[in-house]
Amino acid sequence: MNKIEHSWYKPVSLITLLLLPLSILFWLISSSRKYLYKLGFLKQFKSKTPIIVVGNISVGGNGKTPFVLWLFNYLTQQGLSVGIISRGYGGHANNYPLLVTDQVSTNEAGDEPVLLYHRLKCPIAVGPNRQHSIELLERTYAPDVIISDDGMQHYKMARSIECCIVDSERKFGNGFLMPAGPLRETTKRLNSVDLVIENGGQSSSHYTLQTSPLRRVSGTKPVNSLITSAHAISAIGNPQRFENSLEAQGIRLLSTHHFRDHYAYTANDFSGFGDDNVVMTEKDAVKCGSFAKPNWYYLPVDAEPSDVVINTLNSLLKEKGILNGL
Length: 326
Hints:
This protein has helices spanning 3-8, 14-38, 64-77, 106-109, 111-120, 130-140, 239-248, 282-285, 307-319; strands at 51-55, 82-86, 98-99, 124-126, 145-149, 161-167, 195-199, 206-211, 215-216, 229-234, 252-258, 278-281, 296-299, 301-305. By secondary structure, the chain is α/β, with parallel strands linked by helices. The chain crosses the membrane at residues 12-29. Keywords: ATP-binding, Kinase, Lipid A biosynthesis, Lipid biosynthesis, Lipid metabolism, Membrane, Nucleotide-binding, Transferase, Transmembrane, Transmembrane helix. Its EC number is 2.7.1.130.
C-alpha cells in the first residue's frame, strides 16, 4: 500500500482532508452518471442471459474470488450452465474479448480470470467491454446464467442479481469516497443490493474461508511433507488475513512481504529468499508458475457461506426466474 491507501484505514489525517475536494468531485461525476442511466438518458445493455454481479463498493481485495468460485459450483449443482466475465485487471491482450484457455497467461487476462479458469475449467471471457464479453459467451456457449466478477459500478450493464462482498475486518475504512477513502460508492448503495455478504465476521449473511493443504506453485500438486517455516508473499487487499491463516497452520513466518494488488511478479522479486520455503496466495501463484522453485507453495481457500446466504440466494434465483422449471 502507498501512503494514501494506508490513510484510508487510519483516523482522519491531513492527507484525508487534502483529498476531500477530489472525493466530492468523484461523487458528483459518479452520481450523475448513475442517475443518467436510471433516468434513461444513457442506454443500458440488457443481455438475453441473466447476469449475477459479484462486486463491492470499496477498492482493494474484499474476497470476491472465493465467492465466485463457490457461486459457480452452486449454480452448476442446480443444473445450470454457467459462464464468467471479468474486466481482467492487469492483463494486456492484443484483442478483446478474450476467452481464457490453458494457453492464456496472466499477462494477457489478469490474475483472477486465470485463477478461476484453472480451478473451474469453465467459459470465461475477459475484456474492458462487458457487453462484448457477454455476447461472446452467448455465441460460443449459450450459458443459462453469467457471473460478472466485479462490475457493480458498471451501470451500462443491466443485471438480475447483485451480490456485494464486504471485508468484515476492514469494512469501509474511513468511510470516504476515493481518493480520500476506499469507497467507490457511499454505503447507502448497500440498500439497493440484493445480497450483502460479509467475508468473515458475525453477520448472519456471511461466508468463512476454509483453507486446504498447501500446494506447490510449480505443478499445483498437494504437499505431503510438513512445512514449518516460510516467507509469506502476497499481493492482495488484506494480507493479514492470509498470514494469520498460515500461522494457524503452525507455519512460522520468516518474513512477510506485501505487494500492491494484482502485482506482476518476476523472479527478481524472490532473489533474497535463497532456498528457504516461500508461501503465497493462489492469486499470486498463477503468476509465478514459470519461475517457481520446488519449495514454493500456495494456500488454496474456499468460501463456505452461511445458510442465510444460501437460502436468500436460492429465493432470488427463483424470484428472477433463473431456476424456473428446475
